[in-house]
Design a protein that fits this description.
Layout lengths: L5 E3 L4 E2 L7 E5 L2 E4 L2 E5 L2 E2 L9 H19 L3 E10 L5 E7 L2 E2 H7 L4 E2 L17
Parallel strand pairs: 2-3, 5-8
Antiparallel strand pairs: 1-7, 3-4, 4-5, 6-10, 7-8, 8-9
């Protein structure tokens, strides 16, 4: 049985070498209160090692959009089927006003629903916006 959702607000920044308290790594990963959180219901383009310029640009846009959404506050971290991923990150569906932030990013073409593996954002058929 999943735990209750946690509702909170924080002032987010883009992650840097400073202590990672409330910052955004990329479009589907952020730090909050010393915990690295992976948004469980989506996948976004890579920003650290993009496969092509298109993926880099989409990843940048997804990162900035997530930052803006999180900065509005009132987010809920909702546990899913698994507590953590293989990298030790918390897996959570992130909601705001009852709506999944992942669903917002998918609707805007900046993410894809999580299907258990990453897509190729550089191919014509590998992104949510195709």
């Amino acid at each position: 049985m999943p735990a209750l959702a946690l509702s909170l607000a924080a002032a987010f920044t883009l992650c840097s070498s400073a202590p990672r308290i409330a910052c955004v790594v990329d479009g589907d990963t952020f730090w909050l209160g010393g915990e690295k959180v992976r948004i469980a219901d989506i996948n976004t383009p890579e920003t650290s090692h993009p496969g092509c310029p298109r993926e880099a640009e989409l990843g940048r846009r997804a990162t900035l959009r997530l930052l803006g959404l999180l900065d509005r506050g009132g987010i809920e971290l909702v546990p899913g089927e698994r507590e953590r991923d293989r990298y030790g990150r918390l897996l959570r569906v992130v909601r705001q006003g009852g709506r999944s932030l992942g669903a917002i990013l998918v609707a805007e073409g900046l993410a894809e629903p999580w299907r258990g593996k990453r897509s190729d954002w550089c191919s014509a058929s590998g992104s949510a916006s195709s």
